[in-house]
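Q: Sequence in, structure out?
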Amino acid sequence: MAGQYSENIKEIFEDFFFIQRGFLNGNHFVYRGDPPILIDTGYLGDLEETASLITGLDVDLAHTSLIINTHCHCDHIGANRYIQDISGCETALHHIGKHFIDTRDAWSTWSRYYNQEAEFFRATYGLEDGETLDIGPYRFEVLYTPGHSADGIVLYNRRQKILLSSDALWENDVAVITERVEGSRALFSLIESIKRLQDLDVRMVYPGHGRPFNDFKGALEKSLDKIRKYLWDREKLGDDQLKKILVYTLLMRRKIREDELFEELMNSHWYPESVDFYFQGEYERKFTQVIGELLGKKVIYKKRDLLYPAVRA
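A: Exactly. Output:
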C-alpha cells in the first residue's frame, strides 16, 4: 500500500486513488488500471477541475469503463454524463438510484428541490445489498446505507479493512437530512445504517466529504449522538439543513448581494418549505439568523454588499 500521493490525493492501494475535494463537493476514487474505473464524479459546475485532477493521474477519461456512484445526488454524479459521452462507459449504482435516473426523477435526486445542476445519464447496472464489486484486483462489498439518500451505499474492502463511507459516515458531522424528500423515516434509517457499520472491522475510512480518518468507532459514536439530538430537537435538524444548503448556494453563486440571496431562496422550493416545516414560516428571521451565524463562524464573509463563501466547492 502506498502512502500520501499529494496534498489532496492519496494512493490507497497500488493504482487506486482517493481524491479529496473542497467543502460540499463530493470526493472521488480512481482506479488507474486498464481500463480505468471511477467512483463518484463531483459537481457538474466543477467538471473542468474534476477532469484535470483525474487526468493528472495519467488516466484517459475516454478509456473509462465504469463509473460507480455511491448515490445519485448532484455532488456525486456531476461528471457522469460528460465521461459517459466521451467513453461510452457503463455506470453502476444502487437499484433505487438507477430507478431515479431511469425515470429522470429530479426530485429524488435533489436537483430540482435544491436548484442543483446535474445532467441525467445512462444507468446501466443496479447494485444490490451484499453483492461484491471487483475494481481491478480489489474486491469491495456493497452495503446499502439509506438515510441521507434513499439509494446510499458504502463500499468495504474486508481484506485491507478499508471503508469508502460516502455520506453515510463523516468524521465529525453528518450529511444533510432532507425529510421533505427522503421522508420522516430518514433519521431512523440513518441510525440503522450506522449501527450496521458498527459490525465492520475498519482500519481507515475514506468519506464522501472531508479527509480520511482512522477513528472509525469515534465517528460512529459522534454520528449517532448528533442524530439522536436531531430526533429530539427538530429545530436543530432544521438549522443544520438551512446552514449547509445556504452555504452550498453561495458556493454555486460565488458571490451575491444579501437581499438577492434572500429573494432567490424565497423563490426556491426548499427554503420556504423547510422554514415552514421547522420554524413556522419565519423566513426573514431565520435568514438573518443563519447568515449571522455563518459570518460569525467565518464560513462565509461579507465585503461591501456582497456575500462570499469562505470555502471552495
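The longest strand covers residues 138-144.
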